[in-house]
Amino acid sequence: MRAALARVGHILTAPFRWVTAPFRAFRRFLDYEPEDSSAGDALAKTFEHPSVLLEHIEALRGHLLRSLAAMAVTSAIGFAFASRILDWLSKPIGGITKLQAIEVTESIGAFMRVSLLTGFALAFPYLCFELFGFVNPGLRRRERVLALMAIPMAFLLFLLGAAFAYFIMLPAALPFLLNFMGIHTVPRPSNYITFVTSLIFWIGIAFQFPLIVYALAAMGVVRAGMLLRGWRFAVVGIAVVAAAVTPTVDPINMSLVMVPMILLYFLSIGLAAIAQRGRKAQQTDPHPSPRPQSST
Q1: Which residue has the higher pLDDT, 158 or 172?
Q2: What is the DSSP letter of 250?
Q3: Is the CA virtual torsion 68, 74, 77, 81 positive or negative?
Q4: For a pLDDT cut of 70, what percent of the chain falls above it?
Q5: Separation between Cα atoms, residue 180 and residue 92, nearest integer Å
Q6: If we measure between CA atoms, which residue out of 177, 189, 194, 197 comes closest to residue 96?
Q7: Measured between alpha carbons, how far is 63 from 130 in angstroms, rounded to an integer?
Q8: Which residues of 2-23 are buried (b: 16+ CB within 10 A; e: fewer)?
Q9: Measured between alpha carbons, how far is 282 from 14 in angstroms, rounded to an integer?
Q10: Is the pLDDT of residue 42 over 80?
Q11: Residues 53, 46: contact at Cβ < 8 Å?
Q12: In the chain, % of residues over pLDDT 90
């Protein structure tokens, strides 16, 4: 009789278990803790069992292949809408009719560049998730939660950086660049699209810096004081990066990339200080959350 009642109860509660199964699986995923081991122990274990390294390489290959497949799909979507996006990118100079090509393949190159950049922007959240999937086995619960929260924030910051470059930087820079010394410039598709997409892409990437620093500070890898003391070296490094990513060699375009990156660096110092306070508060918590015991 008891077994029959248990079976009936099991059948009646099955729908509830099905509904809550994803939440329970997600909770187990968050609560998983890796084994405590130093870098030296991990390296020694790798030498003793080379198959462990092969497993990581195989996992990395899978993540890279899935990322490339996602980029192929999103780039195909970008290819379908590239003409409209080209019109949109050309609005700051008065439309696509203001561009003048002087080479046979110039317009095709600009079209393909826009398609690839659009594909990257669409695939960005998935690429971040694949990166998280690769490093996840070595993360603790708090680091795992931070990483999951960082994925939508990274995508939002990339869009904010792209919007900042398009709506603020380009309208301020293009009139000056196109009429410098009173010389009217008729931009070419390859040069203009390279300039605009490079600026949008790298400013979008630069807007990730505060999030990366916050995550590293929350993990105890960097400190706000260390970043503040090294600000001179950071400015030099930013200048080198700006010179490398700027399509032209003039200081105006270089400054357009440098200024927001320097501001983001100092914003990152403030976020690192906030992350440090949160980390210290958690370490001094008199009632820490119980940690699951290792099976070994």
Answers
A1: 158
A2: S
A3: negative
A4: 75
A5: 16
A6: 189
A7: 6
A8: eeeeeeeeeeeeeeeeeeeeee
A9: 38
A10: no
A11: yes
A12: 13
Tens of pLDDT, residue by residue over 214-253, are: 877 877 778 888 888 888 898 888 888 877 766 555 677 6
The two tokens of residue 18 are: 């099905």
Which residues contact residue 288 at a Cβ distance below 8 angstroms, ignoring those fewer than 6 apart? 282
User: Assign residue 95 a region: left if phi > 0, alpha if psi is -120 to 50, beta otherwise?
Assistant: left
Q: What DSSP state is assigned to residue 221? A: S
Determine the Cα–Cα distance for residues 37 and 13; give it in Å rounded to an integer: 41
Helix axes 141-164, 189-206, angle to 10 degrees: 150
Tally of CB atoms within 10 A around 67 = 18
CB contact at 8 A, 89 and 114? yes
Helix (H, G, I), strand (E, B) or coil at 287: coil
Contact indicator for 235, 262 with CB cutoff of 8 Å: yes
Report d(CA 27, CA 87) in Å as an integer.
46
pLDDT above 50: residue 39:
no
Query: CB within 8 A of 56, min separation 6: which ones?
Result: none
Sign of CA dihedral 218, 220, 225, 228: negative
Burial of 203 (0-12, 13-18, 19+ CB in 10 A): buried
pLDDT higher than threshold 60 for residue 21: no
Angle at which helices 82-89 and 189-206 cross, to 10°: 90
Tell me which residue has tokens 């080479």.
103
Question: DSSP letters along 215-253, please?
Answer: HHHHTTS--HHHHHHTHHHHHHHHHHHHHHH-SS-SHHH
pLDDT per position as a tens digit, 98-154: 888 888 888 899 999 999 989 998 998 899 888 888 887 777 777 777 778 888 888
Q: Which of 32, 25, 28 is nearest to 294 (CA)?
A: 32
